[in-house]
Amino acid sequence: MKLVKIKEIIILILLLLNFIGCKISPYIQYPRNTSYYQCVRSAGYDWATLLISSNSTKVSSESLQALYNANNAGLKVDILIFVCRGISPEEQAQMIIKNILSSAYERIWVYNILNPVNPNCSWSRSP
């Protein structure tokens, strides 16, 4: 399935959830400063989903800063990770749990799909 199709499906799901009364949170892929998250908050959002970049042993410092910036702006945060080839989803989630304070996030979403952000995690590369 092409990435465009996946985005269309996600948008449809979000629209459906909004229609039935669920809250929508913005998905934020790149680290931003606190004022960006304050703007998101003032736009009426109280929740954000952040893509966290990591490898098998640690979370990137930029991702940690983005997470804390979102927290400082008053947002609740869900963490989104793409699984790297050669690392089990459970291992990656455990690494996040070990490296980030549990009070900094609500949930961890693990996507077992092609990682568009980190070329070193590509499914076409050998583990």
Describe the structure.
- With 127 residues, the chain is α/β, with parallel strands linked by helices.
- It has a single domain, classed as Rossmann fold (3-Layer(aba) Sandwich).
- 39% of the residues lie in helices and 15% in strands.
- The chain contains four helices and four strands, in the order αβαβαβαβ.
- A four-stranded parallel sheet has the order 1-2-3-4, covered by helices on one side.
- Strand 3 (76-82), helix 4 and strand 4 (107-111) form a beta-alpha-beta unit.
- Helix 2 crosses helix 3.
- The radius of gyration is 15 Å and the shape is globular.
- It starts with a helix and ends in a 16-residue tail after the last strand.
What brief labels describe this structure?
127 residues, alpha/beta, Rossmann fold, four-stranded parallel sheet, 4 strands, 15% strand, globular
Hey, roughly how much beta strand do the residues contain?
Answer: 5-15%
Shape: globular
Helix content: 25-40%
CATH fold node name: Rossmann fold
The number of helical elements comes to 4
Distance between the termini: 23 Å
Element pattern in H and E: HEHEHEHE
Number of strands: 4
Q: What's the architecture, going by CATH? A: 3-Layer(aba) Sandwich
What's the number of domains? 1
The average pLDDT is 75
Q: Low-confidence stretches at least 5 residues in length (pLDDT < 50)?
A: none
Give me the secondary-structure category: alpha/beta
